[in-house]
Design brief:
It is a single chain. By secondary structure, the chain is of the alpha+beta class. The protein has a domain of 155 residues: 3 helical TM bundles of succinate and fumarate reductases (Up-down Bundle), CATH 1.20.1300.20. It has eleven helices and six strands. Strands 1-2-6-5-3-4 form a six-stranded mixed β-sheet. A hairpin with a 2-residue loop joins β5 and β6. The radius of gyration is 22 Å and the shape is globular. It starts with 19 loop residues before the first helix and ends with a strand. 29% of the residues are buried.
């Protein structure tokens, strides 16, 4: 018997059960320790690593990964710290600008950023509370354009995106943009928010959007996509069953109204920001 567990007469001393707060603190400490070992953004990897990860797992997931691999060839993992959606969006979008040299897209999003600033000011935010975050993102955006005077490469962009002084600031920029859009269109978003633990849109933004580490769902994605005018595709890797024995991957395209091309005879656009969602986490996907 462990001497530390024995009392007088050899009787075992019963240790008190940990409280809920103690259990939560212990879980948070474990998550923080694990997160510290994983970069904000990983290297690009073949999608086969995902198949290997689920080799002994659910047959449904294995089948869906096989279907996913027909169109997507690579994945870039993100740290699971509650900011994974925003980091995935940030890097995927900037990488697209870098690869496509899309000056028109930069002009388009800079115009929307100015509107986002105005939205926050109209809502009563003080400019000093968000201006540094906006400035860092604009600097990153302009640095990936050709002729910007920088020699940014994908590796350099990745290094910057792993630096907390840049990455966390851009995450906060995206959180402010998201919060501003939800508040601006409170009447639209309210039915999806109010109820349960959220009595109001304002409370939702204060507790579930603006703080670092708060996880994102379809509300955050829709608001950010609309505010910046950037289409986003989310592929869902989950255990939902498939009809008639046919394996399919559910996905949803978040398409801002500003991106609809009906005047050109097209109903929608093909999103270049493509994310993989597994319950509670987002990574970046790359088409073949």
């Amino acid at each position: 018997m462990d001497a530390g567990n024995a009392g007088e007469g050899g009787c075992e001393v019963q240790r008190p059960e940990p409280t809920d707060d103690e259990i939560m603190r212990q879980q948070n400490d474990i998550q923080a320790e694990q997160a510290g070992k994983v970069p904000f953004l990983g290297d690009k990897e073949p999608l086969s690593v995902l198949a290997a990860e689920y080799e002994a797992g659910s047959p449904i997931l294995r089948a869906k990964i096989e279907v996913l691999s027909e169109k997507y060839g690579e994945i870039r993992r993100t740290r699971g710290d509650g900011n994974c959606f925003f980091r995935s969006f940030m890097f995927s979008y900037l990488e697209h600008i870098l690869d496509a040299k899309d000056e028109a897209e930069v002009a388009h999003v800079l115009k929307n950023i100015e509107q986002c600033k105005k939205t926050l000011l109209d809502l009563g935010y003080q400019e000093f509370t968000f201006e540094d975050f906006f400035q860092i993102f604009v600097e990153q955006l302009e640095s990936v354009l050709p002729g910007s005077g920088s020699t940014t490469s994908t590796d350099a962009l990745l290094e910057k995106s792993r630096d907390p002084s840049t990455s966390d600031y851009i995450v906060m920029f995206l959180r402010f943009v998201t919060s501003g859009e939800i508040r601006r269109r409170a009447e639209f978003f309210e039915p999806f928010i109010v109820g349960g633990n959220c009595p109001s849109v304002d409370q939702f933004c204060k507790t579930s959007v603006e703080p670092m580490g708060e996880e994102s769902d379809h509300i955050h994605i829709a608001a950010l996509s609309d505010a910046l005018g950037v289409p986003v595709r989310v592929m869902y890797l989950d255990r939902s069953s498939c009809d008639a024995g046919k394996t399919e991957i559910n996905h949803h395209d978040f398409i801002p109204s500003s991106c609809l091309l009906k005047d050109k005879g097209l109903e929608t656009v093909e999103p270049y920001v493509v994310l993989l969602y597994r319950p509670g986490h987002y990574d970046i996907l790359y088409p073949k």
